[in-house]
Amino acid sequence: MTEIGSPGKSQRNGTIAGIDAGSDVADEHLDGDDASSVRALLLLSMLMTDRVDEEQILNLATTSVPSLGPCRLAGVYLLEDGWRFVGDILATAAIRADVAAQLAVLGQGGGGVGFTGVTWGWAFPLRSLGGNYGYLVVEASVVPAESEKSLLRVLAQQTGIALANARLHARERTTAAELRVANVALADTVAALERRRTIHDRLIQAAASGQGQEGLVAILHDLTGCSVAVEDRHGNLRAWSGPGRPEPYPKRPASTRESLLRRAEEAGHPIRQDGCWYSVAHPREDIVGVLVLMDPDGTAGEQEQVAMELGATVLSIEFVRLQSLAETELRLGRDLLDHLLTGDDPDRARDRALALGIDLDADLCVVLVEGETRSKKEADFFHAVRRAARDAAAGTLVAGRGRVVVVVSEPRRSWQQFHDAVSEQLAGGSCRIGVGGTCRDPSGIPRSFREAELALRIAHATGGGNRTTSYDQLGIYQLLAGVKDLSALDRFVEAKIGALVDYDRMHNAELVDTLTEYLEHGASHGETAMALAVHRNTLKYRLRRIHEILDVDLGEPGTRFDLQLAARARRTLCVLRGESSTSIVPLSPRHARAPATRTSRAAP
């Protein structure tokens, strides 16, 4: 709000006189020359129209008021802004409020305004085609002539037009600025969409062409310039592209990794931690993979994050594809295994095997794996064995059969690598492996299966826990299991240790078990006592009782041989006759304390 003092004669004639002089029609006394005043108003209108600043327009108008008659400027009141230029008569806020209240009831045509101690006051509307912007308020000691009022009215109207023009220009400038900003934003958006489309097309092409995880990380490395990795659910490296691959690949503690993955999953977009960007791929309920972008310097920006998001989507598609293939392979594998074990229609079995890429005409053997993971879930155990078979290149065909996993594989000199691979996958679980004999064609698969099952049962019955047992290494057990007339074995066992078996049954003793361990450990008192977890004196007492019951000399080599053969024959009979229950029956309370395992119902 600008205040203006009372104008003098020179001020009265200043603006209009200057404009008129500049047009070669100067006249020092414009009050009486209406034609000259109109010309000056036209020139003033042109000046105001050229201005785009409202302050300059109002300054031209207010300084011209005294030149148009015996009037003084009271003030300029704008409807949107309130008082702007005010004279001495509106010096106080109370007076300004009173006059503003009078203006509020005036129409667009303006009207008289009352001032204390002033003869005449008038509010001329600042109008244009766009409406009324406010009022030019003047006051005078005498009532001006009608021609002077007309000049003031024209001045107010031209001021309103100039204000409308200035505001239009202001809106145009604002609109132009907004359009420039919008165009820049639109160009950025188009460029971002184009980059996103390029990234999307390349990644989708990789997925469609079957390049797999290795192809995915290679494309992401090319797009971002950063090293990229794919990890599985547990942090194991599945694929890598770019320099600086760490060896060995680091794994976070399970609890720390779980927290990181849950945070990334809840965020719904890549998150940064410890110099890396993480984006999870979870096409189903659980997270199945993690995309990791190495960014130790923090240079990755929006484009890299977009690539990570789209990459995680493609990785999810890839995992769905792999899971679908795996499920199909597992189903076909189970069907093929069942077909092989029945031994029917070998040509059809060959056709099914060919679909799975399995050569049934190569030397093969059946391997049975039983055990459990910490989770106690059969599915977890199966997948652990399947991964181990893949890592150790030990599996031609892997299928589940109850709680036992069946692996049909090429024969190996040593199965320890496979056993170690399974143990590593179980991460704290346990496993036992039975290996059947080699077969030259599909018709031998059922026999190899029975042999693997027998090896597994014998291993458990002889106290073998977390180990691998091959049928070819069973020794005397292999011979005993091949006896067709089991009654002959029964008679032999009864003749040699039948009395001891009866004594254990009647007295809930462990003499048969003690004798067996004693003979298996070469008649060593120390090793036998350690194996049985008893004191030497206890062992000696039991051996005396065995001597008394059987009436034999345990120091005689031939006697020890017969007794050991009888003990092994009894174990073999127990294994063979336990087949219908699918449980490996332990031979003593000590063995009974171990958890029972289950195998296939197929006969050994």
Number of strands: 16
Strand order of the largest sheet: 1-3-2-6-5-4
Give the count of helical stretches: 19
Instruction: Give helix % range.
Output: 40-55%
> Can you summarize the main beta sheet?
6 strands, mixed
Broad CATH class of the largest domain:
Alpha Beta
The CATH superfamily of the largest domain is GAF domain
Instruction: Predict the CATH topology of the largest domain.
Output: Beta-Lactamase
Structural class: alpha+beta
Which spans of ≥5 residues are poorly predicted at pLDDT below 50?
5-14, 17-32, 579-604
Distance between the terminal alpha carbons, to the nearest Å? Answer: 109 Å
CATH architecture classification name of the largest domain: 2-Layer Sandwich
Mean pLDDT: 79
Number of domains: 4
Which term fits the overall shape? Answer: rod-shaped
Strand content: 5-15%
Output the radius of gyration. 51 Å
Oligomeric state, counting identical vs distinct chains: single chain
Characteristics of this structure?
alpha+beta, Beta-Lactamase, 6-stranded mixed sheet, 19 helices, disordered C terminus
Word description of this protein:
- The structure is a single chain.
- The protein has 604 residues and is α+β, with helices and mostly antiparallel strands.
- It is 53% helix and 15% strand.
- The protein folds into four domains: 2-171, GAF domain (Beta-Lactamase, 2-Layer Sandwich); 212-323, Beta-Lactamase (2-Layer Sandwich); 343-474, Reverse transcriptase/Diguanylate cyclase domain (Alpha-Beta Plaits), CATH 3.30.70.270; 482-592, PucR C-terminal helix-turn-helix domain (Arc Repressor Mutant, subunit A, Orthogonal Bundle), CATH 1.10.10.
- The chain has a six-stranded mixed β-sheet with strand order 1-3-2-6-5-4, sandwiched between helices. Strands 8-7-11-10-9 form a five-stranded antiparallel β-sheet, with helices on both faces. A five-stranded mixed β-sheet has the order 13-14-12-15-16.
- Strand 2 and strand 3 (82-87) form a beta hairpin.
- The chain is rod-shaped and about 155 Å long.
- Residues 5-14, 17-32 and 579-604 have low confidence and may be disordered.
